[in-house]
């Protein structure tokens, strides 16, 4: 039973690694960006509320985001643990999560920081495409699909996210360093932070992540 947080900038490889961890540990991969994009695709109020923020690379307000996550982690499949990807993204979100877990005598077990330089993040985001159906990320050079433009897993169409275009990426990295990076110290002071060098082959990062998880 593990509750894991994957921390790292946009493009660090959180989604890529979370998918593997989720499969191997049979715990759900909960990615707030995926949840917002799914809500947007379905035209729900939540999706419409989030859209303006996502388009600009800003964070969706904490109250909306926290409520969405608390509801998701209360579902049946999350009873045996989960891996959070893209949440928390502010110290306020981290505190709200801790408080909500504490009510049920629960807590986060591990926060893993996947560390990648800005230069490499920009390269990864500019080459990323994701599946319209399952949101699996690919990269034109680092991790291409077997057939161009088509998801290996379900045949879904691959597309480039609007917010992965150069105009928005700069702001997203700035938002990360202003609003999300303070969580590194937050988890460090709780003794929960482990750092991994994310600037290595996908398989090497995966191995190091499992070394950390297996030691838990
Ligand atoms: P995040 O979820 O942190 O935003 P992703 O998992 O979507 O990041 O990865 C960002 C991009 O980088 C994707 O195109 C992915 O295929 C690619 N990628 C992920 N991990 C690595 C890695 N270790 N080395 C090179 N490219 C990677
Ligand atoms: P991501 O897929 O993680 O890159 O997230 C895409 C966008 O969704 C972000 O740029 C934000 O606008 C929004 N978002 C995702 N997670 C959060 C969060 N924890 N808090 C606020 N906004 C978020
Ligand atoms: Zn797919």
Task: List strands and helices in order, with pairings.
Blueprint: E1 2-7, H1 14-25, E2 29-31, H2 32-42, H3 45-56, H4 62-73, E3 81-85, H5 91-103, E4 110-115, H6 118-126, E5 128-131, E6 137-139, E7 158-159, H7 166-180, H8 182-189, E8 193-197, H9 202-214
The chain binds adenosine-5'-diphosphate (ADP), adenosine monophosphate (AMP) and zinc ion.
Question: Can you walk me through this structure?
Answer:
α2 packs across α3 and α6 packs across α7. This protein has a five-stranded parallel beta sheet, sandwiched between helices. It has a three-stranded antiparallel beta sheet with strand order 6-5-7. It is α/β, with parallel strands linked by helices and 216 residues long. The termini are close together. Helix content is 49%, strand content 16%. A hairpin with a 5-residue loop joins β5 and β6. The protein has a domain of 151 residues: 3-Layer(aba) Sandwich (Rossmann fold), CATH 3.40.50.300. Adenosine monophosphate binds next to α2 and α3. Adenosine-5'-diphosphate binds next to α1, β6 and α9.
Kindly list the characteristics that best describe this protein.
216 residues; alpha/beta; Rossmann fold; five-stranded parallel beta sheet; three-stranded antiparallel beta sheet; 9 helices; 8 strands; binds adenosine-5'-diphosphate; binds adenosine monophosphate; binds zinc ion
Strand percentage lies at 15-25%
Q: Which ligands does the model contain, each kind named once?
A: adenosine-5'-diphosphate, adenosine monophosphate, zinc ion
Mean pLDDT: 97
CATH superfamily of the domain at 2-117 and 180-214: P-loop containing nucleotide triphosphate hydrolases
If helices are DSSP runs of H or I spanning 4 or more residues, what is the number of helices?
9
Radius of gyration over all CA atoms, rounded: 16 Å
CATH topology of the domain at 2-117 and 180-214: Rossmann fold
> For the report, how would you describe the main beta sheet?
5 strands, parallel
User: Into which percent range does the helicity of residues fall?
Assistant: 40-55%
Basic shape: globular
Major sheet: order of its strands? 2-3-1-4-8
Number of β-strand runs: 8
Q: Which regions are unreliable across 5 or more consecutive residues at pLDDT < 50?
A: none
């Amino acid at each position: 039973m593990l509750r894991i947080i994957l921390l790292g900038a946009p493009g660090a490889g959180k989604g890529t690694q979370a998918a593997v961890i989720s499969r191997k540990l049979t715990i759900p991969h909960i990615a707030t960006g995926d949840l917002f994009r799914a809500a947007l695709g379905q035209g729900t109020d939540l999706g419409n509320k989030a859209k303006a923020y996502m388009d600009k690379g800003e964070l969706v307000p904490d109250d909306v985001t926290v409520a969405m996550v608390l509801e998701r982690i209360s579902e049946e499949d999350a009873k045996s643990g989960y891996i959070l990807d893209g949440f928390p993204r502010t110290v306020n979100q981290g505190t709200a999560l801790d408080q909500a877990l504490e009510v049920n005598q629960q807590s986060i077990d591990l926060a893993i920081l996947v560390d990648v330089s800005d230069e490499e993040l920009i390269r990864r985001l500019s080459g990323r495409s994701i599946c319209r159906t399952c949101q699996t990320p690919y990269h034109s050079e680092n991790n291409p699909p077997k057939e161009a433009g088509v998801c290996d897993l379900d045949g879904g169409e691959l597309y480039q996210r609007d917010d992965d275009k150069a105009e928005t990426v700069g702001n997203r990295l700035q938002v990360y360093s202003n609003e999300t990076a303070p969580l590194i110290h937050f988890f460090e002071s709780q003794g929960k932070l482990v750092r991994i060098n994310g600037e290595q082959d996908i398989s090497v990062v995966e191995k190091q992540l499992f070394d950390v998880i297996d030691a838990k």
